[in-house]
Amino acid sequence: DAGVTQSPTHLIKTRGQQVTLRCSPKSGHDTVSWYQQALGQGPQFIFQYYEEEERQRGNFPDRFSGHQFPNYSSELNVNALLLGDSALYLCASSRRRQSTNEKLFFGSGTQLSVL
Amino acid sequence: AQKVTQAQTEISVVEKEDVTLDCVYETRDTTYYLFWYKQPPSGELVFLIRRNSFDEQNEISGRYSWNFQKSTSSFNFTITASQVVDSAVYFCALSGTYTDKLIFGTGTRLQVFP
To answer: What is the pLDDT of residues B66-85, one digit of tens each?
Structure first.
């Protein structure tokens, strides 16, 4: 049973460029969340996708956008990259529930370096 | 606002020592969930435990145990007889009702030396 997979594992970009990160959720999961983890910090919630729509969003600018596909996989796009966007980007998946909180399964992340 | 504080930045112990990682949280929700995750050098966050705010029973799982005290808003994690493989960064996290969004602490780096 494959867990959450993310690609690429590492990426180097320059300021002003755009980047797309990809995530495939764990089998049986339909909800994908994205987190940004700066060096030495805890992960920060970016947004969550369910049924191909953004359902929740954290305190991130519009430069951060996403998409969810019918097969539940997801992309995170970041435009006009800044040096401060350098971080580990983690994808997490879960099953959507109405009443109880589901634990999240995380991928190994994409390490983005902006030069 | 919700907040999680892990005051211990880094802890170093020798193998077989017991170690406790502290976590203090703030929330106005009456129903909430607390989590511990482990992050080894590979980067993946590994789920360890989830507790809801109505269940204050302490839990033990092998060498791991958790002490949830609502009165002090704390959810501490103890590793008994630590092993080198326990070396990782440990995160405490909080979420509210009807949401998977996690609020993480800044993590505690645990180093276990042989």
So the answer is: 999 999 999 999 999 999 99
Q: How many helices (H) and strands (E) does chain A have?
A: 0, 11
Predicted local distance difference test score (pLDDT) of residue A1: 64
Asked if the Cβ–Cβ distance from A41 to B42 is below 8 Å, we say: no
Residues of A within 8 A of B47 (CB-CB) are 103-106
Q: How far is A15 from chain B (nearest CA, A)?
A: 25
Alpha carbon A39 to chain centroid, angstroms: 16
Please judge whether A104 and B47 are an interchain contact, meaning their C-beta atoms are less than 8 angstroms apart.
Answer: yes
pLDDT band at residue A103 under the 50/70/90 scheme: confident
Size of chain B in residues: 114
| Residue B107, burial from CB neighbour count under 10 angstroms (0-12, 13-18, 19+) | buried
Residue A81 and residue B31: Cα distance in Å, rounded?
A: 38
3-state secondary structure A30-82: CEEEEEEECCCCCCEEEEEEECCEEEEECCCCCCEEEEECCCCCEEEEECCCC
Name, in order, each residue with C-beta under 8 angstroms of A2's C-beta and a sequence gap of 6 or more.
A24, A26, A27
Per the CB < 8 A criterion, the answer to whether B58 and B74 are in contact is: no
- Residue B25 · residue B19 · CB < 8 Å: no
Query: In a 3-state reduction of DSSP, which class is residue B20?
Result: strand
pLDDT at A99 over 50: no
Å from A36 to nearest chain B CA?
A: 11
Which residues are CB-contacts of A53 (< 8 A; sequence separation ≥ 6)?
A: A68
